[in-house]
Amino acid sequence: MLTSTGSQVCGYEWMQNGETQIHCGEGPMAKFQAVGTPQVRRPRPPRVLLADDQRDVLEALQLLLKRECFEIETANTPQAILQAVASRHFDLLVLDLNYATDTTSGQEGLDLLAKIRSLDDTLPIVAMTAWGSVELAVEAMHRGVGDFVLKPWDNSQMLSIVRSQIAQGESRRMERRLISESQTALRDEVTEACEVQQRLMPKDLPALDGYKFSGASRPAHILGGDYYDAFHREGNTIGLCIADVSGKGLPAALLMANLQATVQSVATEESLPGQFARRVNLAVRRNVSLGRFVTLFYCLLDTANHRLSYVNAGHNAPILIRQSGEILRLESGGPVLGVFDDVEYQEGTVPLEPGDRLVLFTDGLSEAVNNVGEEFGEDRIIARLKGASGLSAERIRNVLFDAVDEFSGGRLQDDATIMIVAAE
Question: Is the pTM higher than 0.90?
Answer without folding.
Answer: no
